[in-house]
TrEMBL record:
Residues 67-171 form the Prepilin type IV endopeptidase peptidase domain. The keyword Transport does not apply. This is Prepilin signal peptidase PulO-like enzyme (Type II secretory pathway). It comes from Alicyclobacillus tolerans. Pfam families: Peptidase_A24. Keywords: Membrane, Transmembrane, Transmembrane helix. Belongs to the peptidase A24 family. It comes from the Bacteria. The chain crosses the membrane at residues 33-53, 59-77, 84-104, 110-130, 142-175, 187-210.
Amino acid sequence: MFCIAVGEKLVQHSAASLVDSSKHVIHQLKSSFYYPMWILAYATLVEALWIEISTTKVHIIKFLIYFILIAFLFVLASGDRINYSISAPLSILAFLVFFVLMIFLLHISFLLEIISAFFGFFLILILILLSRRKMGFGDALIFLNIGTVCGITGCLWILSLASFFGCIICIPLLFIKKLNAKTAIPFVPFITAATAFWMLLGQQITHWYISIL
């Protein structure tokens, strides 16, 4: 009974968080030029992913899981950009959903899924401690989901790419004094862009990197 009660509370909090985040997205769509560009980018990404991986039944299932992950990240990115916060209940519920999908639909090993998920989670926790909490706990929860879907290699590449994209955007803004060292910068939009990039070109990047070692 206790587990059922906890599950109901988690679902309720997650649903409320999803509704709030969706309202923010809709509000921004009505008031900003940039959010239609996000929607266009998302539609383009989905089409590109479909062309890239939708060849067999397994690939189609993988595409659908990627589709859900990117949609989830887009919602969180909007919330992170507006409120600088990420819903913990929504992230945990998403992790449970992805975990079940990967095990029962793609038949990934239970142990491998646990290792991959918590590798991403603890990787960001270590960075949070090293950065003296300049990164948020929500980023660790996001990488819990990324590790579940993309694996250990995906976590490493996505973190590297997100940091690289962040530097490309933020360093020029520092030079022109639009930002300073104390400015809070939402990291989830960069994580979302890095995840999309890895989904499209991850295998090619990994093969290229191995070939030059």
